[in-house]
Structures are given as structure tokens and as C-alpha cells.
Amino acid sequence: MSTKARRNDVVRTRSRFGAWVDHHVHSLLASLLRMARKPWATGLTVGVMAIAFALPLGLWAVLSNLSQFTGDVQQSRQVSVYMKPGTALERAQVLATEVRARPDVARVDVRSADEGLRELRAQGGLAEAADALGENPLPHLLRVTPRGDDAPLATALQTMPDVDVVQQDAAWRQRLDRWLTLGERVAWVLAVLLGLGALLVVGNTVRLDIQSRRDEIEVLQLLGATGGFVRRPFLYLGACYGLLSGLIALALLTGAEFAVREPISRLAQTYGSAFRLQGFDPFRAAVAVLGAGLLGWLGAGLVTGHYLRQTRSTGE
Hints:
The chain crosses the membrane at residues 40-63, 186-206, 234-253, 285-308. Belongs to the ABC-4 integral membrane protein family. FtsX subfamily. Keywords: Cell cycle, Cell division, Cell inner membrane, Cell membrane, Membrane, Transmembrane, Transmembrane helix. This protein is α+β, with helices and mostly antiparallel strands. The protein has 2 domains: 26-70 and 174-314, no CATH class; 88-167, Alpha-Beta Plaits. It has helices at 3-37, 39-66, 70-76, 89-100, 113-122, 127-132, 150-158, 171-212, 214-222, 227-270, 282-314, and strands spanning 79-83, 105-111, 141-146, 163-167. A 4-stranded antiparallel β-sheet has the order 2-3-1-4, sandwiched between helices. Helix 1 crosses helix 10 and helix 2 (39-66) crosses helix 10. It is elongated.
């Protein structure tokens, strides 16, 4: 092949690619313009989709905030080992060293009887009761943080010498884990159902737009337009609906977060917790918006593909 022929092929390839890019840009701008020309219909469609996206996203945000209690849950998973009355603090520290050597133990903290009495005095309204005790009746305490399941560890600690009582409560943690698992399952169910609802909303909106442009589509097909050429503007229309809905859903959730953040922080402070409500980080927000846009693109693609298959089957 001559140099001139190769040059002509390169020019034609660039020309086709440029036309392809131009049509994508034109389809995007035309979709935005059509949405702007029908603000009432666009607002209704986007509003319904935004609420459909906001519900599962909000539930996921709640579950994500609950995961912030992991540190507190880990603290509450501690096994409390009370030494026998009269046991020396040195003996408690030796026992703590032995427990730390176990492979199923992550951490051991020693709270002496004097520290326990100071904590009792520090609690509101209990200072006088602590003074009335006279001699310190509190035992030394080992706070053991398990590395895995705490039930076998608690049983083993109970058999160690100089140990009086081993306290651990796994029932409430099991209930908490089950509630969190149920919440995640509900979030997925809501996401699927409301996602299907948003898909249908986009599909119906695009279907109405296709019907209003039926003559235009037929002319394009008579001129030899491919299915991709016909489908592209509607795909961008669906994607724009989805992206805008995702942004509005995030705005709604952000507003709800600001509305309840301060009351939740004050409530947590009354329980001695520093918990603060957290919203969507940039990565999760981007994933949510792009996912909404993809869902809109998919809904438009399904409806447009169905229409094109019908026109081919009927010979239009």
C-alpha cells in the first residue's frame, strides 16, 4: 500500500472517530436540553428516582455509622476477671502476664482495687457511699480482650488460681450481630426493589420520549442510521436522569445528617460516648452517584433496545 493510501486511511479513521465523538457530545447536550425544556416532568421523574435512591443509601449510612461502635463493642467484649478478696496486686499482675501469653488473648489491662475505688468516687452521687465503705472492699480486676470467641477463654480463666469471678455477656452481642445482619439484608432488599422502581421510572420516561420522536427515528432509520446511533441520545438521557437523581439523593441525606448530627452527639455524650454521625465520604458518594447514572443508562438501554427490536420485526 502506498504512503498516500495509508495517509488517506488514517484521515478516514480520524474522521470517523471525530464524528463518533461529536455525536456523543451532541447526544449528551441534546439530552440535557430536552430535560431543561420540560422542567416539571423532569423534576417529577428525578424526584421520584432520588427518593428511591435515598432510602437504601440512607439505610446503608445508618449501618455504616453503627460500625463506628466497633471499638466500643470490642471494649464491651472484654472479659472481666475479678480476683479473690485479699489477693495481692503483684499476684494479679503476674496472672495478667500469664494471660497475655495466651494466643486467644489480644490485650490484658489490670485495674487495682484502689483504682476501682477512685472510679467509684468519681461517679456522680457515689462519693459519700465510697467514703462510708471505710476499708476498700473492691477486688483487683483484669480486663481481658479476647482475640476470637470469648466463651472458651472465659471458661479457661475461671479455672486459674486466685480467680474469684469471670464475667462475660455474649448474648447481647449475638443479638446485635443478628440485628446488623438483618439491617444489611433489608438494605439489599430495598436497594433491589427501589432500584427496579427507578429503572421502571427511567424506562417509562424514555419510552414517552421515544414515542414523541417516533417520526424522527423513522427518518433516521430510512437514512441508514444504525441502532447505536438511534439509541445513543436516549442512553445519555437515562444516564442524566440517574446522575441528577443520585446527586439529589445525596443532598437529601446530607441535609438529614446535618439536622440530626448535633442531637445525636449530645445524646451520645450523656452516655459518655464521643460518637459523631458520619456522612458519605467522597469515594462512597461518587460510587452512589455513578451507580445511579449507570442504572438510568441501563433502563434507557432496555427500553430503546426493545423499541428497536419491535421496529425491525415489523419491518418499519
